[in-house]
Design goal:
Elements: H1 13-20, H2 30-36, H3 41-52, H4 55-58, H5 63-75, H6 85-99, H7 110-122, H8 132-137, H9 141-145, H10 151-164, H11 177-192, H12 199-216, E1 218-219, E2 229-230, H13 236-251, H14 259-282, H15 298-320, H16 326-351
The structure holds ligand D5N and zinc ion (ZN).
């Protein structure tokens, strides 16, 4: 039986095809992809990117096994408001677009690109919709299993690799042992780096690391345009550092999207945080920051999130790949201003 064009059967294939024409664009509406792919956004996005990047030929991947793995992975994302399979599809498509930046034209090997896309797709699988701190505070089995250390990130990695052991899902069967080892090593490194407790360390190293890269930046000899300075990194360690930052940026990319997309993610994360707060309240636990629906100031929290975390990170990233990624910075700025306007509007409403 032939494989459907986007990996999964859907009565809306024409509409999905129209959406997938924007797979290389930052403005892709992942919620539309989810709706028109019969809730298989992760499978259809990953399959489309793999085909477009010729990874199926390069690594002699069985298309059927790839789809078996993707559909199984997707089914292991839980039905939680934010950390569901749409978030994985969103982050996967984001890292695909970041990898298309001309600065990286000659930077990564095919295997590193395969690993980066795989890491993005798996990075939050089986996420229960609560924070690491909640799992630790509630003596959850997972916190016990992972000794309170990057509990969710370790769990997603273990679940994702466990699924690979399934014979008819092992789409990397034709990789050499060395390649499988490298794929596993890079995926583990990248997914563990999505733990927000590592954010400070990433911000510490990013400044000096990017300065050293800019110093090395060379004019790509056969480039057709003088501005195409490709980053050539001889050390795999440095390339993995860049991929780690890239996945962290993709994971924290909601405020860099168009307002209509960004506000849907805000609604979802607040649902998830408030539900956790409800569980903490009824368990008599202290309610985590931003998780108390009775005292929530959603607009202020987003402005704080943008100013403290998202904008500094994306400014560092945009500096490295200048002039690319200016659109992300522009969206962050206009989105922050929109939330500031909501607040100013709110107070004047109260005065009427
Ligand atoms: O929790 C966040 C970082 N912490 C750091 C410590 O202070 C509180 C925030 C990052 N994170 N981790 C997982 C999901 C998200 C996360 C992703 C999209 C978020 O907002 C929007 F873009 F949709 C988001 O917003 C929260 C609620 C208000 C401020 C932060 C959070
Ligand atoms: Zn995530």
């Amino acid at each position: 039986d032939t494989i459907p064009r986007f990996g999964t059967e859907t009565p809306h294939e024409a509409k999905l095809a129209e959406l997938m024409d924007n797979i290389d664009a930052w403005g892709l509406n992942i919620f539309d992809v989810h709706n028109y792919s019969q809730s298989h956004s992760l499978t259809s996005v990953m399959y489309t990117i793999f085909k477009k990047r010729n990874l199926i030929e390069t690594f002699r991947i069985s298309p059927q096994k790839l789809i078996n793995y993707l559909v199984t992975l997707e089914s292991h994302y839980l039905d939680v408001p934010y950390h569901c399979s749409i978030h994985a599809a969103d982050v996967t498509q984001a890292i695909h677009v970041l990898l298309l930046i001309p600065s990286f034209e000659n930077t990564f090997t095919d295997l590193e690109i395969l690993a980066a896309l795989f890491a993005a797709a798996i990075h939050d699988v089986d996420h229960p919709g609560v924070t690491n701190q909640y799992l630790i505070n509630s003596d959850n089995e997972l916190a016990l299993m992972y000794n309170d250390t990057s509990v969710l990130e370790n769990h997603s990695l273990a679940v994702a690799f466990k699924l690979l052991q399934n014979e008819d899902c092992d789409f990397i069967e034709n990789l050499s042992d060395e390649q499988r080892k490298i794929l596993r090593q890079i995926s583990i490194d990248m997914v563990l780096a999505t733990d927000m407790s590592k954010h400070g360390a990433i911000m510490q190293t990013i400044q000096s690391f990017h300065q050293s890269l800019k110093a090395k930046q060379c004019k790509d000899s056969n480039s057709n345009s003088s501005t195409n300075d490709s980053l050539v990194l001889t050390e795999q360690k440095e390339r993995v550092q860049l991929l780690r930052e890239m996945l962290h940026c993709a994971d924290l990319s909601n405020p860099t999207k168009h307002l209509s997309i960004y506000t849907q993610w805000v609604d979802r994360i607040m649902d998830e945080f408030h539900y956790q707060g409800d569980r903490e309240r009824s368990a008599g636990m202290p309610i985590s920051p931003m998780c108390n629906r009775r005292t929530a100031d959603i607009e202020m929290a987003q402005i704080g999130f943008i100013q403290a975390i998202v904008e500094p990170l994306w400014q560092m990233w945009a500096q490295l790949v200048y002039p690319h990624c200016q659109q992300m910075l522009d969206n962050i700025d206009s989105n922050r201003q929109w939330y500031e306007y909501q607040i100013s509007n709110r107070s004047s409403r109260n005065n009427t």
